[in-house]
């Protein structure tokens, strides 16, 4: 409760700054906010629903605030080298330098790349298996992570038994789950969050759900009518689910696990699926898996509705060493009942498994890179 209140108060100040601040697309500017946050691009938001100074006041008693903020991050992997670091420095180590910033948002969402628990056995043939200790969930709670997508290529590394254990641990910790469940219907069901009166629906899908690694054990990660697992990134399902979620929520966010590893540009399939997802009615598309950041672009949905596509948020908590795998970001979305109004990129670098918010010259350089990657997108439009 204390954290929630803290989160509310600190955001109010930042929101006012963001909405009041002049907006020049394509420029990097430093905001005079107390958090010294750096805005990459907020795109000209349509006229704010209320005078900006209202954001700094108490929430409207009847309808709640007009805008809320959502912090989205990429892959969180709490096993292997990150586990070693936690054994040395404590369970909260992975989030020590970013928790405050994440908690300052009204809602925080991530891709949980490692299952949690002690149950299960490594799925045959896979080669890389992640499983974090159950108590590692304390870090997610400490960082104020409210919801995760589990639709990815590691969440069933220790098979069904551990997958179900992971879901149970998350639920006990009051962390919402999208993209996976006890059967296909559950995996496709949106995670519905009431973010201070604004209803946000999260859906999650994995492009790798149909893969398996051993012909004698052809167990893919995809959920079926009778089997737990993740939601596969099949367009006809996404279309149905987004359509349904649209009627239940003010804002629909679709998280995809997709793309090519260690590549800073989305591939054609990502771009096509993203565009179709926006046409189905999603407000935001969030990507993860490449272990590298990729560009961000605006798109137009049904009825001229503005939508944002972030092709890959990169790693967030991860033990990989290559420089490209250590570039990261917190993507702050400004949401209203009518969809997405703007966004802000907080540049992050991962050091020894631990994300750190960049400042000064380091921040400027990474923001410029993200800006370049985003500009590249507008110069090439996908076919199909
Ligand atoms: Zn992945």
What are the defining features of this structure?
384 residues, alpha/beta, Purple Acid Phosphatase, chain A, domain 2, eight-stranded mixed β-sheet, 18 strands, 28% helix, 25% strand, disordered N terminus, binds zinc ion
3D architecture notes:
With 384 residues, this protein is α/β, with parallel strands linked by helices. It has a single domain, classed as Purple Acid Phosphatase, chain A, domain 2, CATH 3.60.21. It is 28% helix and 25% strand. The chain has 9 helices and 18 strands. The strands form 4 sheets. Strands 3, 4, 5, 6, 15, 16, 17 and 18 form an 8-stranded mixed sheet that branches. Strands 8-9-11-12-14-13 form a 6-stranded mixed sheet. Strands 1-2 form a two-stranded antiparallel ribbon. Helix 7 packs parallel to helix 8. The radius of gyration is 19 Å and the shape is globular. Mean pLDDT is 87; it is low at 1-39 and 44-61. The chain binds zinc ion. Zinc ion binds next to loops.
How confident overall, as mean pLDDT? 87
Bound heterogens, unique: zinc ion
Which CATH architecture is right? 4-Layer Sandwich
Strand content: 25-35%
CATH superfamily: Metallo-dependent phosphatases
Low-confidence stretches: 1-39, 44-61
Might you state the CATH topology name? Purple Acid Phosphatase, chain A, domain 2
The total domain count is 1
Number of helices: 9
The dominant shape is globular
What is the first-to-last residue Cα distance? Answer: 48 Å
H/E series, N to C? HEEEHHEHEHEEHEEEHEHEEEEEEEH
Provide the helix percentage: 25-40%
Strands, total number: 18
């Amino acid at each position: 409760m204390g954290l929630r209140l803290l989160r509310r108060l600190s955001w109010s100040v930042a929101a006012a700054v963001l909405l009041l601040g002049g907006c020049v697309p394509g420029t990097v500017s430093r905001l005079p906010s107390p958090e010294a946050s750096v805005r990459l691009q907020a795109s000209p938001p349509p006229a704010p629903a209320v005078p900006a100074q209202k954001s700094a006041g108490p929430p409207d008693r009847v309808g709640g605030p007009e805008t809320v903020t959502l912090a989205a991050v990429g892959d969180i992997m709490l096993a292997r080298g990150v586990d070693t670091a936690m054994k040395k420095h404590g369970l909260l180590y992975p989030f020590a330098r970013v928790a405050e910033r994440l908690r300052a948002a009204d809602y925080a969402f991530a891709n949980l790349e490692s299952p949690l628990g002690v149950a299960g056995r490594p799925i045959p043939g896979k080669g890389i298996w992640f499983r974090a200790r159950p108590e590692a969930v304390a870090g997610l709670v400490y960082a104020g992570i409210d919801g995760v997508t589990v639709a990815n290529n590691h969440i069933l590394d220790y098979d069904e038994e551990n997958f179900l254990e992971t879901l149970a641990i998350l639920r006990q910790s009051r962390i919402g789950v999208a993209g996976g469940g006890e059967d296909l219907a559950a995996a496709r069901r949106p995670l519905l969050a009431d973010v201070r009166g604004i209803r946000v629906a999260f859906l999650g899908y994995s492009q790798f759900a149909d893969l398996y690694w051993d012909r004698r054990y052809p167990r893919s990660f995809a959920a079926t009518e009778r089997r737990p697992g993740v939601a596969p990134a099949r367009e006809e399902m996404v279309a149905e689910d987004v359509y349904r979620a649209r009627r239940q929520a003010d804002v629909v966010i679709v998280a995809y696990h997709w793309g090519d590893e260690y590549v800073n540009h989305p591939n054609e399939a990502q771009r096509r699926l993203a565009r179709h997802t926006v046409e189905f009615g999603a407000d935001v598309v969030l990507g993860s898996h490449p272990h590298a950041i990729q560009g961000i672009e605006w798109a137009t949905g049904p009825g001229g509705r503005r939508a944002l596509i972030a092709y890959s948020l990169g790693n967030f908590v991860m033990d990989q060493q290559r420089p490209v795998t250590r570039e990261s970001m917190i993507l702050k979305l400004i949401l209203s009942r009518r969809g997405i109004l703007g966004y802000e990129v907080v540049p992050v670098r991962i050091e020894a498994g631990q994300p750190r918010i960049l400042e000064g010259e380091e921040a400027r350089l990474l923001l410029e890179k993200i800006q370049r990657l985003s500009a590249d997108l507008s110069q090439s439009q996908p076919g199909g």
